Please model this.
Amino acid sequence: MPPRPAPTAAASLIALCLALLSPGPATAAGHPEPPRDDAGLQRRLEELVRTPGGPPGVIAVLQDEKHSRVVRAGVADVETGRTPRPHDHMRIASTAKAFSGAVALSLVQSGDLHLGDTLGKLLPRLPEAWHAVTLRQLLNHTSGLPDYSRSPEFIAILRADPHHRFDSRRLLDFAGQTLLFPPGSRYQYSNSDNIAVALMAEAVTGTPYERLLEELVYRPLALRQTSLPQGYEMPEPYLHGYAVSPTEPPEDVSELIGMSGVWASGGIVSTPTDMTRFVRGYVGGRLYGPDVVRKQRRWIPGGASEPAGPGRNDAGLALFRYTTRCGVVLGHTGNTAGYTQLIAATPDGRRSLTFSVTSQINQAQTPELLQRLRAVQEDFVCALLKGKA
Model:
């Protein structure tokens, strides 16, 4: 285990790394001339790694019905220089919200949950002002729930002890009593939404969320290296995640923060291989029927994940539409201490892209680097859609 950061270093990293920020505008990223051959994708990743402040490592997995291709640059561990590999574990950040969406929508398919079910009906202990919020509004981030992870009390606890063991099922206690806006009136991405989704799933089934993930997602999609831990340790082997600046050596933050304070909003650990299986099945409709899929894909224009994905972003139910210059893919993004993620697939699930970066990149901290990242991701989407992956 790497040495734990000094308290002052941990406090500053937590302020930077918790992804407590609302997404910036999901405008199309600028980009240089797109690659005209397969080697161009490799060059784009190498350029991203060499960028001042760029990530130490990147790995992308492109897959169609017959072939899989892995493109990578940089290292999985700056100490050893080891190459990133598809079976390396990593924190998947807010792409974990797609997993809570998968659980909830599977329960909608079975009739245990309904998109119109309210917090007041299933979780009456929550503040009365929240009682009219529906499952649909939680899944498409129009609930108005305040983001618990922005709470000064929550942040103070983490700054004092980044490995603090929270009661994951009481995280919403940090969110206050009121709503930010009337439910359904506008879009605002919030970590609280997916905590509430997981609690609703537990309430109707009487089953812990971790077991629901196993039964409804991991097992049907054959995810063998995916888990939702409570602690901070990473399973071996793993892609080390780093805090990066243009002037300082990368600092390993893979195990900076315990996952009990993230839980259903972003605590899952997985691998590029498993995430490829997940996004193909999730987007391709393998977990629930076409009626639920249609409801999932009622888009809110301009609703973006955090950070914004490639092209123009629109929000569905625990799913985002990325309209690029080459066509449309559906998926989710995420960022947390040491990691930035994109998972995407064509609407039929037959072509997919998993794109994993070993540093945190978002609009608030590194807007220019995010623009470059989105441009590279769009080039990979184009290669995927044009069958040149």
Q: What stands out?
A: The CA atoms of residues 202 and 208 lie 6 Å apart. Confidence is low (pLDDT under 50) at residues 1-12, 19-36. DSSP finds eleven helices and twelve strands in the chain. The first strand starts at residue 57 and ends at 63.
